[in-house]
Amino acid sequence: MNFTLHPEFPTDIEIEWNTILDNNPNHVPFLRYRYQKIWWETRGGGEWPDVDLLLVSASVDGKLVGIAPLFSSLDANGFPALFNIGCIEVSDYLDLLVLPEYQETFVSGLLNFLAELSAPAWKNLNFYNLIDSSQSLPVLQAVSAKMGWEMTVEKLQHSPFIELPGDWETYLAGIDKKQRHEIRRKMRRAQESDVPVSWYFVKDAASLDTEIDAFLELMGTDCDKAAFLKPTMQSFMHQVIHCAFEEECLQLAFLEVGGQKAAAYLSFDYLNRIWVYNSGLNREFQSLSPGWVLLGHLLKWANENGRSEFDFMRGDEEYKYRFGAVDRFVVRATLTPPAKV
Length: 341
Hints:
The chain is α+β, with helices and mostly antiparallel strands.
């Protein structure tokens, strides 16, 4: 297995990159080539202004079999460290990209390759936002133990999800009776409102930028999200949404009350699942519970259209559990090489 260090983000391996991802047991949308490239070019929407690329690829007989998209920076304690591209704030799930039959060989070769680098200097290797069921975790643990590396795994955040039965009524029957009643009541109240309430998916390329701006405006009504949406982050969001639209996995939905946008959900419709990325709410219409109503419609749509899972991704907000979500977690794996003698 031959390893190559890329000092610049490679522009000629998109097809091979996504082919590895398609065959990767840890397949998540944030590992697609274009998303990772957008993240790198914007430095995560400005989250990491001072970083150096350390992207490593591995090939066997000229065939690309694994990629470790990494960068170097300082960790929270001011020590030089390596991190996975995409971390920390804007990419809910991350992992290594490697064909399953090469996992152990790739990880052991990668650790040796990184340990032998003369520059940059670094003290630990951080893989953020791995799903706790990631097949990379036991491989990293086994290889690091064999090579004398120290590895710790830290639970970072809740990441609740709903397994969908494929039928709206069956889904409702499976959640708490009180919450089932609340969902029905709020959706019915919106339907019977004197002011027209409707919802839709964004499908028109010509209006996409206008719809993105409307979505970001709804996001910005929340104080924390407003602080998050700096100009560099808004540019990142625009690019990611355009990318998802062009790759036919965008699900941007709005609920309108009397023709005014009252709620929105930005999700990815990918791998037969809905991955909920962010949301926005106009609190002027709070009496109609627009967020709940739109979420109810999206869950109904997902069930009726054969989606297998509704993934809320990171965050333990109460409403997710009221809709029947159950927990999984994202973790951070930190690997430290043995001290050099």
